[in-house]
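Journal club prep — side note

Before the paper discussion, L.F. wants everyone to see what a predicted structure for a comparable chain looks like in token form. Sequence:
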Amino acid sequence: MKKSLCLLGLLIVVCNSGCLGRAISEGFHGAKGAGGRARPSQAVTVDLAAYDAVVVEAFLDDTRGLGNKAFMAVVPDKVTEEIVTRTYLRRQGNKVLRITGTLINYDTGTTTDKIASPMEQALCWVKLIDGASGDVLGIASCDSRAKSSVRKGPEELATGIGKIIADWIIQHDSRGARPKE
């Protein structure tokens, strides 16, 4: 009898640990939102503190029809919003940093993925360009991932791309991040 109760207790602990882990993960990723990182292929070699404005152009879709139209529609505004909120760059100014991008992969996962571990992904090539000269200042692959079943979708992934680009800009701006208001 004692052995049966111990096995039952152990079974309950093992079964609930997966549910508990999923609940913790959902809570963390639900609060954090989409995120990811920039992987530069051409390093930024100038101090971006010289720039005071940003213009984010419409991203191109290079997914051969597999991209998400809603993502493509919101990405310029979401990226601009994150940059203006987190850096010293504004929507208008004298020295403009242009940002262009190309969506190269958009993945919402399979049905099994959505049940076991929800994840959506948008992968973009992004260029930082001097607005006056047209010189490319840096190129990076930006990988936005939403890992929550609550905070997901095209707008969340576009916000994630914006966070990644803002962080990349902050790394190369001697002023650092803009203080939160």
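L.F.'s comment for the group: The chain is about 40% helix and 25% strand. Keep this in mind when we get to the figures.
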